[in-house]
Amino acid sequence: MSVFEQDLQALYFGSMPVEHIFLTEYMPAARGDYVKVYLTCLYHSRMPNDDTKVEDVSRELGLDSSVVENAVRYWERRGLMVVIGGEAPRYQMRSAIQRALSGEPLSADNAFVQFSERVYELFGESRKVRPSEISMAYEWVEEEGLSPDTVLALLRHMWTLRGAQFNFQAAGQLAVKLRENGVRDAADAESYLGFEETVHKGAQAVLRRLGRRRLPSEDELKLYRKWISEWGYTQEGILEACQATTAAGEPTFKYLDGILARLRQGEGGPADAPAVAETLDKGREELRLTSEMLNALGARLRPEAALAIYRELAADSPHDLIVYAAKECARNGKGTLEDLARLLESWNKRGLNTAEDAENYVRHVRELDTVLYRIYEACGYRGRASKTDRELLERWQGMGFEEGVLLLAAKQASGASSQKMKYMNTVLKNWQQNGVTTLAQAEKQAGRAPAAPSGKRVLAQQYEQREYKESEMQEILGVRDLFKEEPDGQTDS
Predict the structure, then answer these.
(1) Sign of CA dihedral 448, 452, 456, 461
(2) Are the beta carbons of 175 and 167 closer than 8 angstroms?
(3) I need a labelling partner for 372 at 20 to 30 A (CA). Which of 174, 252, 302, 435 fits?
(4) What is the DSSP letter of 424?
(5) Looking at beta carbons, which pairs linking 180-189 to residues 24 or more positions away fall under 8 Å?
(6) Residue where one domain finishes, among candidates 353, 388, 420
(7) pLDDT tens digit string along 255-313?
(8) Does residue 236 lie in a domain region?
(9) Sequence-separated (6 or more) residues with CB below 8 Å from residue 113
């Protein structure tokens, strides 16, 4: 140790010489952060017994440690730092003037010099490339492990897609992707970048079809890559699918992605334009049929929202049956998709598989209910038609009783305090055993004299001449039988 030493306060508050050749020959080509790192390292190198490490410089400057490490490697390439030591490397600062006087080139890294010349040659007069941009590009060689030829291919690719004034940082993002995809040499790079060029141009074509005049975003490029590499769509197929985006207020890649996802669910997954067009036509037809169903139901829904439900219904029922069922639901005040599904399920269980079958069934039920209403009115019962009552009525009709006879029997049952239909059934069984089939016979059996032909209306006329409006029938009989059978039994008023 020397017997002479510098006062520490003089060192801290003194000055540090920086060679002019550094300012003129080295600093212009370096990134700002790299210059900060160099000056900080130069400062610490002049302090006696200073043990500052790379991580200390990182904290001192507020820079990420990787930035500081990259800066140190950069100045190594430029010959202003030399690594000395073993496991814990130390760095010796070199004098720029001494290197110049000794005849050493200003850049001790010949590979870097050659790379720089090739970059300048690539752009020529088209772009004035800054030294910092060349340094950034060379980092892709050292940090990402790409060959110089690969990096040059990458620069040509960016120039082709975005023009000569493209952002080198954007190119850096692609350099990372090259490394992540195992691209190292120029041949692999040409193949990969050729695909990327196809993706970029394809995404631009989609944007134009959607009415956008701009470059695709990274998210849009990512979607396009998925469509052609994972989902197997062709460019023509994707453009064909753009037709379906007209339903969107502002068509986007995300909206198109949903359309392609739905198309892909079809058999084999349509890829080319004819297959996509065929599937889209089928989809449009399904939407038209869904719209018919919703209109018949009176539901205020977009066809797209009900398409999945329509497909489920159509798997078990033909379209005309679905529409007819929807009309019945709407007429009966049950205009929801759940009501429609429940009604169709009920009809399917009954074996009603066509609209004609359903119409005949509904007509028959309404005819029975009309007669039952008259019977209920005659016997003084208030309630809804039940499955049991319909079966009784059909049995009585099968026994040959005309409506006038049934209404007379109902009148006979009006005095019963409960179970009027059961009482009426007993009366009719008794009449059948006594051979009663006509109204005249029934009136006689009931102890009543036949009506005289004096123009007065007979009992049958009194009941049969009345007509009921649809609204009146719905109010009194209800329409729940179409959806769920009423429980057996009556409740007297």
Answers:
(1) positive
(2) no
(3) 435
(4) H
(5) 183/146, 183/150, 184/145, 184/146, 184/147, 184/150, 185/147, 185/149, 185/150, 186/147, 186/149, 186/150, 186/152, 186/153, 188/150, 189/146, 189/149, 189/150, 189/153, 189/154
(6) 353
(7) 888 888 877 776 445 556 566 666 566 667 778 899 989 999 888 888 878 888 888 89
(8) yes
(9) 105, 107
